[in-house]
Amino acid sequence: MEIVRRYYEAYAQGGFDPWMEYWSDDVDHRPGKDGIDDPGPIHGKNAMRKHIRDWIDTFDDFWFEAVELIDAGQDTVVAVERFGGRAKLSGVETDQTSGVVLTIREGKIARCREYATRADALEAVGLRQEAMSQESVDTVARLYNECWAPGKLELVPEILHPDIVWTAIASAPDSGTRRGPVECRGHMNDWLEGFELKLMPIQEARSAPDGRLVCDLHLIGTERRTGLTTDIQFSAAFRFAPDGRLIEIHEYATRREALEAVGLRE
Fold first, then answer.
1. Fold match flag (2-126 vs 133-261)
2. How many of the other CB atoms lie within 10 Å of CB of 83?
């Protein structure tokens, strides 16, 4: 897990060349199947280097990150990757998520298999997607019930990643996007100044193919000035960083909207 975590950090911190050093000389790679663009099996570090370099060069402003790492045992890690950029030929912006199974040998990545979704990658190593979500559910519950509702905002750094992006319900008075723990903490504090909050237990949680978690949430707020009660039921999609902290929260007015946003149906 630590080797794979450093592998992803290497690209973010040092770019292409330090990133490539994590592949073994005899790496065996199978890219995802995408029709006529499928290059077939790739063997060896030099071939891998050319394959990835040619792929990255089709984008402007390319970026790449791991949003989740899962220990699959026997030196194998399932990674949920997110990448994007602007296609040079079309100018179209892309933001995609896929699943990758990486096998480590002698400190290097010796085997790589790409899959269209997180669920496909988990199935390939004999894991079920549903089994992966409980820790994530606990993190979401901790944000609302241990941190926000009781006003213990000192817990924010333990729950929210430094790159957190929090988008409130579009139709709500507090709509908008907050970036980073400081802005998110300010958003939470604004509610605490106006309301005494009570968060009910999470009613339902579902895992999406890309690793996001959709939760139904129920908030009851008593306005401090008037004593009037506000009862809000809503849903949100949560994305997690490799270290388990929340890196993206997107709230929706209804469960259907949240599920559709992550490619699920009611």
1. yes
2. 18
How large a percentage of the chain has pLDDT more than 70? 94
User: What does the domain layout of the chain look like in residue ranges?
Assistant: 2-126, 133-261
DSSP string, the chain: -HHHHHHHHHHHHH-HHHHHTTEEEEEEEEPPP-GGG----EESHHHHHHHHHHHHTTEEEEEEEEEEEEEEETTEEEEEEEEEEEETTT--EEEEEEEEEEEEETTEEEEEEEESSHHHHHHHTT--GGGGSHHHHHHHHIIIIIIITTT-GGGHHHHEEEEEEEE--TTSTT-SEEEHHHHHHHHHHHHHHHEEEEEPPP--EEE-TTS-EEEEEEEEEEETTT--EEEEEEEEEEEE-TTSSEEEEEEESSHHHHHHHTT---
To the question of domain 2-126 being in CATH 3.40.630.30, the answer is: no
* Closest by Cα among 25, 9, 180 to 107: 25
Residue pointed to by tokens 């306005």? 223
**Average pLDDT score, the chain:** 87
**Ramachandran quadrant class, 134 (left: phi over 0; alpha: psi -120 to 50; beta: rest):** alpha
pLDDT of 155-164, one tens digit each?
Answer: 999 999 999 9
As its CATH architecture, domain 133-261 has Roll (3.10)
